[in-house]
Amino acid sequence: MKKLSFLLFSLICTSLLAQDPLQSELFTADVVMKYRSSIDLTKEQQKDVKKIHQNHISKFNSVKWDLDAEMVDLNKLLSQSSVDESATLEQMKVITDLENQMKMIRLQMLIKIKNELSQTQQSKLKELRVDKDFKPLKVITDINDGHKVKFQISGSKSQKDKPLYIMNSKFGEQVISAEEMSNLKPNEIESVSVLKGESAIEAYGNKGENGVVVITLKEK
């Protein structure tokens, strides 16, 4: 039964990552900001791209946490000695709907970003991009443990190269440790935003040079 639930989870993850070929014609905010000087991105364009990214990534991560919670419920259904087929299939429909929402949010964000760029800027970006620009940042939630959140961030594992973790709550913004972050419960989280490169440094100074993970908690 564990193998079956893992297979379903893998299929969903594979489907989500299959969106990455869209990047051959579309551009993420990270790529645009990385090469902003080379493509002569204006200050106004930079402001608009940042706004588009922030608005959509918040929605995307909010749905992602809902998906994680529904996957936990699916796992519970599948773990029974006698699986309720009807309930399980209905649960899978809920999961598929959330997955499609994530796809649409991501696609809409990439389209809006592209439409902010001139044809010349788009052509230049395609020339400048390298293979590593296509690698996505992965945010993973354990399917068998609904109480812990795990963040997998590519790069060095050394302490000094770890990202900055920021928690937003009704009490304001505060820096937290990786351990404190991992102990947060998914149902406490409203959204998770990830800043990288110059956008992270611009927002948090040198402390953000290795990336910033901003976790916004739900108001109780």
Structure report:
This protein has 220 residues and is an alpha+beta fold. Helices cover 51% and strands 14% of the residues. It has a 4-stranded mixed β-sheet. The longest helix is centred in the N-terminal third of the chain and has 36 residues. It starts with a helix and ends with a strand.
Q: Which helices and strands occur, and which strands form pairs?
A:
Blueprint: H1 2-17, H2 29-34, H3 43-78, H4 85-115, H5 119-128, E1 138-140, E2 150-152, E3 164-169, E4 172-176, H6 178-182, E5 189-195, H7 197-204, E6 212-217
Helix pairs in contact: 1-3, 3-4
Supply the helix-strand structural class: alpha+beta
Q: How many helix segments? A: 7
Mass-distribution shape: globular
The level of helicity is: 40-55%
Strand order of the largest sheet: 4-3-6-5
Radius of gyration from the alpha-carbon trace, in angstroms: 19 Å
Low-confidence stretches: 1-19, 136-157
**Strand share of the residues?**
5-15%
Mean pLDDT: 77
Beta strands, count = 6
Q: What distance separates the N and C termini?
A: 36 Å
Helices and strands, in order, run as: HHHHHEEEEHEHE
**Assembly state here?**
single chain
Main sheet makeup: 4 strands, mixed
